[in-house]
Amino acid sequence: MDKNLHFELSQNTVFLKRNGSNCLSGTLVLCLGKPTRIRRAEVNLKGVFRRQPREWPVFNTSVSLLQTNILRPLYLSPGRHEFPFTIPLPLSRHMKETVEGVDGYAVFYRLKGSVAVSGKEISCSERIRIYHALELQTDDPVGVYNEWPQKIRYSIDTPSRYVPFGSTVPLEINLAPLTEGIQLESITVEMLEDQNLADEYFSNNSAERLVQSRRICERKFNSIKDLDFGNNNYYNNDYDNTDSDNGFCVSISLPTSLSAYSQDVMVGHLDISHRLIVTLFIRNDNHISSIRAAVPVVIYMPCANHVKDGIPPRYEDHMLDLPVDMSHLDRLPSYK
User: Fold this and answer.
1) Which end of the chain is more exposed for a tag (fewer CB within 10 A), N or C?
2) Given this model, what pLDDT does residue 328 score?
3) Are residues 324 and 230 in contact, defined by beta-carbon separation less than 8 angstroms?
4) Is 85 within 8 Å of 64 (Cβ atoms)?
């Protein structure tokens, strides 16, 4: 790489949208200290699927910025020279989303600029991230409504199935004990990532795929100090026969690092999805049992005007910032 050649981009993260043209635009900047002969200048955008230690190209396109005749050389004067460019990005199966944070697997894009000067070639490169923009028509709450027969009814809700990368996910939990002696002991909330990975990029054989799950983050609530109890009206809860005094809110914050996990991806050779796992530990006559519920969610990259240091901005849900009066509570909810 040469310090005299660099990119100036309006953004290094592109969100592909169904409506409108998608492209990567910028300027290749060449700084010269003396008159220099130029033969050509071009930019290249290449996408690669990596399954360590092998790589397969998924996208490759070049744009010529300058081409001279060998019989008519072009000399540029000292100073700064700009070569603007635009690379069209097709909305097709060839434009795979950038994938990071998956051990041994990745989809990445590299923008390379090269200039042939005075018998040699100088170059520069920059990493580009490409995602499909999430375009929602409707977005409804999602949750689990179930019953431990003759013991307890419960509901677990989150206000949206779609979760921005690096955000905080709120959950409302409602409990309705059906017998005496039922008491909530503690709660564990986890975000799991399910991975279905092809061993080879061109493989369609299910026997050659790696299926596994991993925990992205976990939060435990072990005492009343960890829980927000009370009436919270920002959820639409249609669960019948649930005592409002036994409703409370918890939340879990997702990591903000792109190397920690991936967004949801469904591209055949690399399928990734996510689940919120909520485990309720219930005390029943001095015996502790557990209830495990799964809430499917979709983690997506939020569109932004810029991406700082390669990490999308953190989107906090301030609904949970509302003050809750807990002065009337001296124990965890139990049967009344």
Assistant:
1) C
2) 30
3) yes
4) no
